[in-house]
Specification:
By secondary structure, the chain is α+β, with helices and mostly antiparallel strands. It is built from two helices and five strands, in the order E-H-E-E-E-E-H. Helix content is 19%, strand content 40%.
């Protein structure tokens, strides 16, 4: 079984816009969520970084999917700041590829943890979703 190089780091970099804040996820003003970088977007960027590392291993018709997430959001990040979410491959456990992940803004580390992804056949995934 092939695996990514443990020395390679993949990153996703983005400016925090109002659309990437917790407030943007609210259905109405009563939810009173902060106008700060939202945890779901941080995790999504971490997942994308992991997927970038797995991309070279994919055969035609395959893709990688998230399987497990163990992530802490450590500090708030304001609109306008630059966020970089990164991943480094750690190990394979059965069908899961585990990654160390972290996020930083212009000033400090804002998140860290581990994420596992699996490689699946896209048609099989679609069939399971439709069942």
């Amino acid at each position: 079984m092939n695996s990514p190089d443990t020395e390679t780091v993949a990153s996703i970099r983005s400016v925090v816009t109002p659309a990437l804040t917790a407030r943007a996820l609210a259905d109405d003003d009563a939810e009173q969520l902060p106008q700060m970088f939202a945890t779901p977007f941080m995790i999504a960027f971490m997942e994308r970084a992991c997927a970038k590392l797995l991309a070279p291993l994919l055969d035609p018709g395959q893709l990688s999917v998230g399987a497990r997430i163990e992530v802490a959001h450590l500090a708030p990040t304001a609109v306008g700041a630059v966020v970089t979410c990164s991943a480094r491959f750690v190990e394979v456990q059965g069908p899961l590829y585990w990654f160390e992940v972290w996020a930083e803004d212009d000033r400090r580390r804002i998140g860290k943890g581990r994420i596992a992804r699996a490689i699946v056949v896209e048609a099989d995934l679609a069939a399971r979703a439709g069942a």
